[in-house]
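Section handout 9: paired folding examples.
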Amino acid sequence: MRIIKTDADVNEGAAWLATHDERLAYALSQTGTLPLRRRPDGFAQLLSAIISQQVSVASAAAIWKRMEDAGLTTEAAVLAAGEDGLRGAGLSRQKIVYSQALAEAQIDYDALRHVPDADVMTTLTAVKGIGIWTAEIYAMFSLGRCDVFAPGDLALQVAAQDLYGLAERPKEKELRQMSLDWTPWRSVAARLLFAYYHIVKGREGI
C-alpha cells in the first residue's frame, strides 16, 4: 500500500499522470510543482473537520481556537465537557452530537494507518457526522493514501469541467468514473485539480 510521505512521492505521481493524460499534463504546466499537503491524523483532525462543516473558514477557525483553548481536542475531554461545555465553545446542537459520536467511537487511529482504503471508509463513515467526503479527504491528506479521490468535492468537479471542456459540471458518480483513469495516483490527481481550481477561480478549493 503506497503512502505519500514526501514531495518526491507527489512529484512521481504528477509525472505519471502527465505521461498518461494530456489534459493533466496541461494542468501541471499551469500549476507547477504540487504541494505535499500532508496533515496530522487522529481524533483532533477529524473533530476539526466536523467543526468546519457548513461554516466559513473564518468561523471554523474561531471555533476551533476556542476548542483548543478549552482543551477540547481529545476523546476524553469532549466526553467530559458534555453538551454545556461544547456549546460554550461555540458548537451547534448538531455538531455537539457529531463530536460526541466521534469521541464515543473510540477509533484506533494507529491501526487505521495500516488497513485497506475501503476499510478506512467503512470505519469513518460509520460515525454519525462523517460522510464519504470527509473520509476521503482524511485518507488522502492525513493518511497519505496515494489512490483515493473525493469526487463529491465541488472544487474538483469545477476544475474537471474546465480542464476537460465539459458542458456541465460532472456529478459525483461521473467524476468517480473519470478518476479511475488516474489510478494508481488519484490522490495526486486531486492535488493537481485543487491547484488548477485555484488558478481557474482564484481561490483555494480546500
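Moving on to protein 2 of 2.
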Amino acid sequence: MSDTSIEPHSFTSMRALVLCDAGQMELRDVPRPQAGARDVLVRVAAVGLCGTDIHIFAGHANYHTDARGRPVPLNEHPQILGHEISGVVEDVGSEVRDLRAGDRVVIDQGLNCVSTRRTPVCEYCATGDSHQCEFYREHGITGLPGGLADYVAVPAVNAVRIESDIEHAEAALTEPLGCIVHASDAVAARSVSARYKINAEEKERRVRAVLICGAGPAGLLFTQYLRNVLKFDGRLLVSEPNERKRALAESFGAEVIDPRAIDLMEAVAERTNGRRVEYLIEASGSGNSFTQIPGLIRKQATVLLYGHGYAGTDLSVINNMNFLEPALVSPVGASGGFDADGRSSVCRCALSLIADGHIKVAPFITHRYTSFGEVPVALASGHRAPDYVKGVLTIKR
C-alpha cells in the first residue's frame, strides 16, 4: 500500500485509511472535511493505535450502531478509525476566537451536548458524565471519521491547545490517559461508601495493596497514576506475562509477577501476608484473569473492571466474587466535567500530566509508524510481537 499514490495536499480531498470490512483497509482519496462556523480543521500529526482499533479492525466489535442499537455493517458504512489524535490547526470557523491556524492541539474525540451546543443538556452532561451523553458520538469509533486520515474536523471545544513542546506522538496519548483519570475519579467517587480507600485517613480503611492485572498501556498508565499522582505508597503489584511489559511496570514503581512462572493467587497471598488486595484493577481483558479475581481480593475490596473482552468466559465465575461483596466500578472513556471554555477538564488534566512529566508515555511507545501502509499490518498482527507495547502513527507529508 503506497502512501504517495494519492495527493495529500488537495484542497478538496485527502488521504484516509478506510476500513471496508473486517481485516480490510484501503488507502482512499476521500472528501476533505470543512470547518463549520464553530469548528476547527486539524491536520493530523499523530495517531495512537488502540486496542479498540484492533478489535474493530478484526471484526470483534462494531460501535457504529443505528437508532435501534444495531451495528451498521462496514460494507454499508466503511469507517475511518483512530481516536487518539494530535495535530495542528489548519483552519478555524468564523465564530472561533480562541484557536488559530498553526496551534498544536490534542483532540477530544467525543461529541456531547456541550460540544454540539445542545440545549438543554442531557442529565449526563449536566453532571459531568459526558461520555454517557444521551446523544454521544465519537470520531474514530462510532462511525464519525477518525484520525487515520490527513485531516479531521471537530468542534473547536474538542481541540485542546498543547502549551508545551512535547512531541505529537506523546501528545496523542492524552486520550488513553484521560480514560485512566476518569476511571480513577470514578473509583474515588464511589469510595465514599466503600470499605477501603486509597490514602484513607483511618488506617483500617486504607488500601494497603493494589493489584493491576495487565501491563499494557492502560496498566502502565495506572501504575504511574497511582504512584505519581495519587501518591499511593502501599504495595503495588502488577501481573503480566510479557517480560518487556513487566520491566516497564517495575521501572514505574511496581512489584511485578509473572503469572506463567508462579500461581498468581499464591503470589498475591504471600506478598500481602494472606490479606490479599483491597483494590484490583483488571486491565487485561483476559477471561482467565477474570476467573481468578475471587482468589485475589479481600472481602469488600474495590474491583475496577477496566479491560474489555473476556470472550469464552463462563459468567458463573461472578458467583464467587459476589460472595465477597466487592464494590464493582466499570467506567468507560475519558468522561468528565467541562472547563469554563467548554473543553473537557479530564482531557486538559491528562495533557498536563504528560507535559509536566508526571506521566511518562515515551518509554512504552515501542513502535513508531511513519506511513499509512504500515497500519493494517500493525492492527492485524504487528501488535502481537513480543516487544510490542504501544504503536503510534506519525503522519509525514
